[in-house]
Design brief:
The structure is a single chain. The strands form eight sheets. Strands 3-2-1-14-15-7 form a six-stranded parallel sheet, with helices on both faces. The protein has a five-stranded antiparallel sheet with strand order 21-20-19-22-25. The protein has a four-stranded antiparallel sheet with strand order 5-4-6-8, covered by helices on one side. The two termini are 55 Å apart. Strand 23 and strand 24 form a beta hairpin. The protein contains 23 helices and 28 strands. Helix 12 packs across helix 13 and helix 14 packs antiparallel against helix 15. It is 40% helix and 19% strand. 5'-O-[(L-methionyl)-sulphamoyl]adenosine binds next to strand 1, helix 1, helix 7 and strand 14. Its main location: cytoplasm. It comes from Veillonella montpellierensis DNF00314. Is required not only for elongation of protein synthesis but also for the initiation of all mRNA translation through initiator tRNA(fMet) aminoacylation.
């Protein structure tokens, strides 16, 4: 594992032209996960993000609002910083292109390129896409004079400009790319860029005179530096180098340049892999090690964009579901490099099944059992059964696989490996049946029960470490409920040895870390999200209406009842306070419920579907005014309603996974 290594990772700096949507959060979430993973693996990490505030687009947006560009960007940049905080983004720095530290470096580097003869004055006459801030020749335009990148109309521009000699470096660039096959990732983007350069590079217009919102060209005050020349320099200016003639010095610069990874969206790979390296070649500075072009988050088949009206605001999503939920979905659903789809039902289903059910329930059940069987105290035990050795072996294999996938930026594969281990740990509970061991603890099963509890806690300790870069809000809460301290000092190394929880550690049951949600509740999140309601259900696998294989067995609808009849039913929400198996019964669970006005005892035949621990603290729908009846000697009051689809499936706490036609009774 890496010791004393450094890692410099950047996201693009975002235009403050509008509010950021969940598409923007994708890149930052991926970068944050990589940064957190690298820290966990022992690297000294610098993680940079920021805002790209100059240019014609911003100037126009400010004019429309009747405020100055800096007033405009100050306001929007504050919302970016708030969003990154809410999403638990661990950036070490936030660069604004309006910072004096940035402007100084842009001017110095522009001057340097001019002094070494790579910048010359001429007149630009051609096309410009203001939303993309990019120049286009007539031949490259789409139909009806549209931008080949974003499809929006371009404008004809004719003005005095400085030009940068891109063409001079085309051969050197091709040679560099050949010698550094990993520089552009994924492979498909590399081939695209090679084709682009082979078709011939034009010199690039690097200053503008038709507006003034930008950094002044140091030797010609009429000009402002072209926004992309300005923006790309952020990756170096944030390291605050001292510039002395041709040399850049300074601690941060020395430690972190060249950057290890520029993570960018696919439509700006061209700027990062052609213009930026050629600028650095001209300036005699080292090139970054890698540019990775990720895909887009797609809604209804198109890239999310404000002009298409299909943007989803991340803040209400985070308010309702939590930052971990959004992070988890983005990371697990999209293979880095490919596009991925967002639909609200798919999102809710993923977080319900993977976070609430698989991970959350594993923690709840484990901590509840340790409290119930051993007053919360763990005792260190060796593996004594094949289930134990199997679990330990998979834990160790998972750490190895996870590290390899993370190092190769296969984030969704890393997540998959961890969730396979989570499922295996859940299965371990079923295999070892702790509730049966507890019954026979006086007949010699006590030691075995302790070993099972210890193995569950250890599995969760390792899981907490591995998920910490992915779901940084939940991971420390798992740690805390296991009764462990020092979460801020964990390393990946800690996950490679089994059996680190000391004897005597006392677990502490807390609130469930990931609640389950149902879709109707979600739909009200924001008006943007509401748009999802009508369209999304059909366009993903998970969102499809549940295929019902039991259609023939669904009974017909019963005869009509009057409203008065319905009114007689006292249906209400109740909270499960206690839940235990009924002795000598295979099917029955005995509950104490908080029904609002009092506590009730009720017996329900759902023992085949739920472990008692799983239901404690959950809310259920309860029919309060059913005549009491005696079951296995226990007086049962009222009835807990459950949905059943006539197969193995039965739900008490949520119905999202049930087939239409399932009966509620
Ligand atoms: N300001 C430039 C970057 C300059 S970097 C020196 C810019 N800004 S942007 O705000 O338009 O986009 C920032 C990033 O967000 C880009 O990497 C872009 O690909 C990404 N995304 C914007 N919409 C996206 C999706 N729908 N999905 C995934 N990423 C998306 O470009």
């Amino acid at each position: 594992m890496a010791e004393n290594k450094r890692f410099y990772i950047t996201t693009p700096i975002y235009y403050p032209s509008a509010k950021l949507h969940i598409g923007h959060t994708y890149c930052t979430t991926v970068a944050d996960t990589i940064a957190r993973y690298k820290r966990l693996a022992g690297y000294t990490v610098r993680f940079l993000t920021g805002s790209d505030e100059h240019g014609q687009k911003i100037q126009r947006a400010a004019e429309e609002r009747g405020i100055t560009p800096i007033e405009y960007t100050n306001e929007i940049v504050a919302t970016f910083q708030n969003l990154w905080k809410r999403l638990n983004i661990s950036n070490d720095d936030f660069i604004r292109t309006t910072d004096a530290r940035h402007e100084r470096v842009v001017q110095a580097l522009f001057q340097r390129a001019y002094d070494n003869g790579d910048i010359y004055k001429a007149e630009y006459e051609g096309w410009y896409c203001t939303p993309c801030e990019s120049f286009w020749t007539e031949q490259k335009l789409g139909d009806n004079h549209t931008c080949p990148d974003c499809g929006r109309p371009v404008e004809l521009v004719k003005e005095e400009s400085y030009f940068f000699k891109m063409n001079k470096y085309a051969d050197r660039w091709l040679q560099f790319i050949e010698e550094h096959p990993d520089f552009i990732q994924p492979e498909s983007r590399r081939n695209e860029m090679i084709q682009f350069v082979k078709q011939g590079l034009e010199d690039l217009c690097v200053s503008r005179t038709s507006f003034d919102w930008g950094i002044q060209v140091p030797f010609d005050k009429k000009h402002v530096v072209y926004v992309w020349f300005d923006a790309l320099v952020n990756y170096i200016s944030a390291l605050e180098p001292t510039i002395d003639g041709d040399t850049l010095t300074g601690d941060l610069y020395h430690t972190f340049w060249p950057a290890d990874l520029h993570l960018v969206g696919k439509e700006i790979v061209r700027f990062h892999t052609i213009i930026w390296p050629i600028m650095l070649m001209s300036l005699g500075l080292p090139l970054p090690k890698q540019v990775f072009g990720h895909g887009w988050l797609i809604v209804d088949g198109t890239k999310m964009s404000k002009s298409l009206g299909n943007v989803i605001d991340p803040i209400p999503l985070i308010d309702t579901y939590g930052s971990d939920a959004l992070r988890y979905f983005l990371l697990s659903e999209i293979q880095l490099g490919n596009d991925g789809n967002f639909t609200l039902p798919n999102f809710v289903q993923r977080i319900n099944s993977d976070l609430a059910n698989d991970l959350g329930n594993l923690l709840n059940r484990t901590v509840a059992m340790i409290e119930k069987y051993h007053h919360g105290i763990l005792t260190k035990c060796d593996s004594t059964s094949e289930f134990d050795t199997d679990l330990v072996a998979l834990a160790m294999q998972t750490v190895t696989d996870y590290e390899q996938h993370m190092e190769h930026m296969e984030l969704n594969k890393a997540l998959k490996a961890v969730w396979t281990f989570i499922s295996r740990t859940n299965k371990y509970i079923d295999e070892t049946t702790p509730w049966i061991l507890a019954k026979h603890s006086h007949d010699g099963d006590e030691e075995r029960l302790q070993a099972v509890m210890y193995h569950l806690a250890e599995a969760l300790r390792i899981i907490a470490i591995l998920v910490s870069p992915i779901i940084p809000s939940g991971a420390p809460r798992i740690w805390e409920q296991l009764g462990l301290t020092g979460f801020d000092k964990i390393t990946l190394q800690d996950a490679t040895t089994w059996g680190q929880i000391p004897t005597g550690t006392k677990v502490m049951k807390g609130e469930p870390i990931y609640p389950r949600f149902d879709i109707p509740e979600m739909i009200e999140v924001s008006s943007d999200i509401e748009k999802e309601k009508g369209t999304v259900v059909t366009n993903t696998e998970e969102g499809k209406p549940v295929e019902d294989s039991t259609v023939e067995t669904i009974p017909p609808i019963k005869e009509l009842i009057s409203y008065d009849d319905f009114e007689k039913l006292d249906l209400r929400v109740a909270k499960v306070l206690t839940c235990e198996k009924v002795k000598k019964s295979k099917k029955l669970l005995k509950f104490t419920l908080d029904v609002g006005v009092e506590e009730r005892t009720v017996v329900s035949g759902i023992s085949n579907y739920y472990e008692p621990e799983e239901l404690i603290g959950k809310k259920v729908i309860y029919l309060a005014n059913l005549s009491p009846r005696k079951l296995m000697g226990i007086e049962s009051y009222g009835m807990i309603l459950s949905a059943s689809d006539f197969s193995e499936h039965l739900e008490v706490t949520a119905i999202q996974d049930m087939a239409p036609g399932s009966l509620v009774k």
